[in-house]
User: What shape does this take?
Amino acid sequence: MEYVNPLTGFRVDGRRPNEMRQLKAEVGVVARADGSALFEMGNTRVIAAVYGPREVQNKGQQVNSKEALVRCEYRMADFSTGDRRRKPKGDRRSTEISLVIRQTMEASILTHLMPHSQIDIFVQVLQADGGTRSACINAATLALADAGIPMRDIVTSCSSGYLCSTPLLDLNYIEDSAGGPDVTVGILAKMDKVTLLQMDAKLPMDTFETVMELAIEGCKAIANYIREVLLENTKRLECQRG
Amino acid sequence: MRDLQHSLNQTQRVRLDAALNELQTIAPSGASAAAVTVADTIPVNDEDNILKGHGTSDQDGEVVATLCGVVERVNKLVYVRTLRARYKPEVGDIIVGRVIEIAPKRWRLEINFSQDAVLMLSSMNLPDGIQRRRTAVDELNMRSIFEENDVICAEVRGFQHDGSLHLQARSQKYGKLERGQLLTVHAYLVKRRKQHFHHLEQYDVDLILGCNGFIWVGEHVVVGENTNMMEDKPSLSAEVENFTPLETRKHICRLANAVRVLSALGFTLTVELIIETAEASISSNVEINDMLGAEFYVQTAEREAKRRADLLKKKSGGR
Assistant: This one.
């Protein structure tokens, strides 16, 4: 199958190779949570809720009482994919992604400021169309900022791939399942540091660099957008408070 | 807007937007200029050695925010005041909390802080009002004072070295709260004032604005009345005592709904504003349950915008 049209250079969904899907973010969507966010990348739609910092519920899990314990749960809704089927809780895929999100967020949260407490991050995929991992990380960042949890920097994530000898930004489901290399990158936007790098396939070293460069560009664009959303939200709250 | 899900019709949406825009224009321009998000650089003069407060960190010689909020400057100190975050206790704050656990010699309370607060048996007055050492018998009778899920009002006494929070309830005005509603709002909506206990005489209602964002609206209790509650009370009068008149219940609900609307709009909660909102609902014949509807929500936003505009005019006129 042709994933990039050789004549026009457009991809299957009509995007250019270095074009991202449309972003949409909303903060404060879950009433009971301390912080929450809805994040959309095209048809991928993710909701995140943050509870805490709160008292540690299971003292056995606490490794170091001087730092906050961060927990994360990733789940795909039954209706998120094309075929509706009950997804067992704690399958290998979601356990792995939970771990990935947790480690990525933990790198940014200033856990030493909240001793003897725990932070729970729940992310649920409402619509899956490729790049759920990235969308979840972006949603979690927004929700954590909304909950007023101190962070070093904004963590954003974006994926990119290499199909038909073209580096592609922000793969959708069709491109994702094409079997080509899929690079997911997470960065600390301002400090310019990589906190997450995953790839499932082989790539020559020099192409890998261009693909990764492309993903980092995408991350930065997302970071700008997230910052805008947060700033607007902060201003609105401050103005209403009076 | 977080707690109340409204389906506004077209006109209501336009009116709400207009009111909120009005609020935005009235707000002092400094407020929105000082807003920062995570990882924003806070501009400071390098010459004066500044002190970095909460919500800031040092990255390559720059002061960077670690929270979303508003930058505050007090002399040399620069810090970020958060809006939506959990409660940050200060010594002397009056708080409302809920008992979640009874441990040896102490109660554990949920107070919207990052940890549970501790109320020691020794840091509260005994029901008989006598000052003495707490004995093992007192310890066994702790459940007769507060049980799990009781709502309590107390004062922040201080922090332990490990960061946990200790409370005290050494006065008649603190203690168990009964016959009323507990509302949880965001802690930033309650400002620290001299007065947090309010007795609204016209409604016969007590209003406690806890600094932690827990708000109590309940029937008025006369302080000192329940000192000898434990003994000699015939069951009949106790029944009468336990009855809250319908009128008072309605007042409680009305005031509670006023708080709900105001907190959903994100307005700072003051007694004056809460009473004003409740009065407005009475004068415009809004039923108690309709106070949570879309129309009253929009009206409240408009009224607040007008009030603030008037306030601003008065200020500039006075000068």
